[in-house]
Design brief:
- The structure holds two protein chains of two kinds.
- Chain A is mainly alpha-helical.
- Helix content of chain A is 68%, strand content 2%.
- In chain A, the strands form two sheets. In chain A, strands 1-2 form a two-stranded antiparallel sheet.
- The longest helix of chain A is centred in the first third of the chain and has 51 residues, at 151-201.
- Chain A starts with a helix and ends in an 11-residue tail after the last helix.
- By secondary structure, chain B is mainly α.
- Chain B has one domain.
- Chain B is built from two helices and two strands.
- The chains are: A mainly alpha, B mainly alpha.
- At the A-B interface, α5, β2, α10, α11 and α13 of A face α1, β2 and α2 of B.
Chain lengths: 589, 92
């Protein structure tokens, strides 16, 4: 059977499974549509949260990000996992106790202000739409690469699948498909990683392999890797090269951004009890950590594999001839993720850091005229099965895994967007008298519209689509996380304080991002060039969310202390979310 | 809403329950920050003498160790809170 048929079969089987779940898990009430009837087992919810959280970027790009830079990009690993500690202790159990359906709803009730609720809706929509575009383009790219259909067709197929289970089943359908999608994506990620680790280090666990001996050179893997990359003029893999302050702030922005992202928070509304919400955050991190501790091993091993393949006679000797390159390189050249240009015309591949001034002399002495290989970071995951000579079904599984990661995150985001519209805007503001049945219909229609809009934006990505980290995490960190936390941990923060906090955090963060990235991300409209020399105290626009959060906390405190304290019933509400007893029960499952 | 029948004593124990929870959270946040921002980034040079698998302890914390600690933290917190809930009679 050829690879194409195999890809088609495996991806087709995974889709059939998702559709089967869609038909089984239809939602009959708004409680099922928004919160899966609050009957999801905490371990199941943990698995669903894992798939909800791990996007196309986590699956395809993160290992490559670490691979290209090494230690400095550990920020992603710590940032995207540390947020779960904050969720488990600062938000999830109390918001579950509150027992409503959306994040803006809590903000609106706690701060007795429809303005606060609408500001939260806007933050939620901007963050989630930015995030979902990346998933939709990811679906298109995965289809194009593995199934040889064009991006648009791939996107339509993906959107149709999500439409099936998200419109029919709402949160209930999404939850159980996410559980299935988690299983697909973690298998697809682990199998190639295990084999590569076995080949390079003899260790079955990639997590152990990363810190083991590289069998071929009898040196520790990381020592070997450091040696090769520095021989080629790159910065050392394990060394610390970035500003410490920026690393700290970036990690913190990712952590509080993770905890403040509405599509993650609402997953904890689906478990039966407050205690379950705490444990479920732990289970979510177990399932996330399986991938997140494998990723740095994949990154380091794939880089070592690539460099060893090209410079098989030692880093500074002549590289392999272009004709003698392995098959996997040929396969990936077709996709454009790997490009070779013979700059000095010697028929050999030279791959080194041609931007390093210090390395220029060595390169010239060798007769090298620039680095000849352009490597897209995504290849570190996508080409892994072929580099490790694994059978065709593993390649097909990676295709299904990439799609599962993108679809599961897209569905979670679409649910957050559509419930904000049907529950917060329609039921909360425009038509409070709407019946249960009417709201369920409104929720389904909002979901349908959200999918159509996301598909359109996936086909025609606007300029801000590439700014998921800056926009989605920046807004969640600077605007949503602080008010949610203050709403629970302080009885004194009032309506005026919350609105002032959210707006000042949001505006501060957006302005800082726009100054460097261009106003509304329109190219050439930035005031200052986006590089470390121009950043205030060396703080990158991607790390500014932490400072925005501090602005939010400060403004909310100041304004609240100058205005009237919240009414007694709000203080009672705060007291009640702080204790587990009295949470509304599961609706049945 | 949640106090049930025990009016005044219920209120007192709810306050004590909440401060016990906040204390537990604060300790957890100290550990959380120490293993990630501390050992993983700022204090890495101090730990550079401790070798592990071809690199130093700080690198391990940044790429793996901190995640393991986070995991243990959440489960220990969830278990301690179950105990605390029962102690103060606020469990579900």
């Amino acid at each position: 059977m050829d690879q194409y048929t195999l890809n088609l079969l495996v991806v087709g089987a995974s889709f059939a499974l998702y559709i089967g779940i869609a038909i089984w898990a239809r939602a009959g009430s708004t409680s099922e549509f928004y919160a899966a009837g609050r009957g999801v087992h905490p371990v199941m919810n943990g698995m669903a949260t894992g798939a909800d959280w791990m996007s196309a970027a986590s699956f395809i790009s993160m290992a490559g990000l670490i691979s290209a830079v090494g230690y400095d990009n550990s920020t992603y690993l710590m940032g995207w996992t540390g947020g779960y500690v904050l969720l488990a202790m600062l938000l999830a159990p109390y918001l579950r106790k509150f027992g409503k359906y959306t994040v803006p709803e809590f903000i609106g009730d706690r701060f007795y202000s429809n303005t606060a609720r609408m500001v939260a809706v806007i933050c939620l929509i901007v963050a989630s739409v930015t995030y979902v575009i990346g998933q939709m383009t990811g679906v298109g790219v995965a289809f194009a690469r593995f199934l040889e259909v064009d991006k648009a067709t791939g996107l339509y197929i993906g959107a149709a699948i999500v439409f099936m289970y998200a419109v029919l089943g709402g949160m209930k359908g999404i939850t159980y498909t996410q559980v299935a999608q988690y299983c697909v994506l973690i298998l697809a990620y682990s199998i190639p990683a295990i084999f590569i680790s076995l080949q390079l280090t003899g260790s079955f666990l990639p997590q152990v392999g990363l810190f083991s001996e590289h069998t071929a050179s009898a040196q520790p893997l990381l020592v070997k890797l450091d040696q090769i990359v520095t021989d080629l003029g790159f910065a050392s893999y394990t060394g610390h090269h970035q500003s410490t302050l920026n690393m700290v702030l970036f990690t913190m922005s990712l952590m509080i951004g993770t905890a403040g992202l509405p599509h993650v928070i609402v997953r904890f509304f689906t478990v039966p009890k407050v205690a379950d919400a705490r444990f479920s955050a732990g289970w979510a991190l177990v399932f996330i950590a399986l991938l997140y501790t494998t990723a740095p091993a994949v990154g380091a091993m794939a880089r070592l594999n690539l460099l060893n393949t090209i410079s098989d006679n030692g880093a500074q000797a002549d590289g392999i001839t272009y004709e003698a390159r392995p098959d996997w390189m040929k396969n990936w050249e077709v996709t454009g993720l790997l490009k070779f240009e013979d700059k000095n015309g010697d028929g050999r591949i030279q791959y080194y850091n041609d931007k390093s001034e210090a390395f220029k002399a060595t390169a010239e002495a060798n007769g090298w005229a620039g680095s000849e290989l352009t490597v897209n970071n995504d290849i570190m995951v996508l080409a892994n099965p072929e580099i490790a000579n694994l059978p065709g079904w593993v390649v097909a599984l990676v295709a299904a895994g990439g799609l599962a990661a993108a679809l599961s995150t897209a569905a979670g985001l679409l649910l957050a967007i559509s419930s904000a519209i049907s529950h917060d805007v329609i039921k909360g503001s425009l038509n409070p008298g709407i019946s249960e049945k009417g709201e369920l219909l409104a929720a389904r229609i909002s979901m349908g519209v959200a999918i159509v809009v996301a598909t359109y934006l996936g086909l025609n990505p606007p300029g801000f689509a590439a700014q998921t980290v800056a926009l989605a995490f920046g807004i969640a960190a600077a605007s949503l996380f602080p008010v949610l936390m203050m709403g629970i941990f302080s009885k004194r923060i009032n309506n005026a304080g919350a609105v002032a906090g959210m707006l000042s955090g949001l505006i501060f963060t957006l302005v800082y991002i726009f100054v460097y990235k261009g106003w509304f991300f329109i190219p050439e409209t930035n005031q200052l060039p986006d590089n470390a020399a121009n950043w205030v105290f060396g703080i990158s626009p991607l790390s500014i969310g932490t400072v925005g959060a501090l602005v939010n906390f400060g403004a909310a405190y100041l304004v609240s202390s100058m205005t009237k304290e919240p009414p007694v019933e709000i203080q009672t509400l705060v007291e009640s979310v702080r204790v587990p007893r009295g949470a509304n029960k599961a609706v049945a499952h | 809403m949640t106090k049930g029948g025990q009016a005044l004593s219920g209120e007192k124990s709810t306050t004590a329950y909440w401060s016990a929870n906040v204390r537990l959270i604060l300790w957890n946040l100290v550990i959380w920050a120490l293993v990630s921002f501390g050992f993983g980034i700022v204090l890495r040079p101090m730990l550079s003498g401790i070798a592990i698998g071809g690199t130093d302890l700080g690198f391990w914390f940044a790429q793996q160790g901190s995640i393991f600690v986070f995991l243990v933290q959440i489960f220990v917190y969830a278990m301690m809170m179950n105990k605390l809930d029962a102690e103060y009679g606020v469990e579900e």
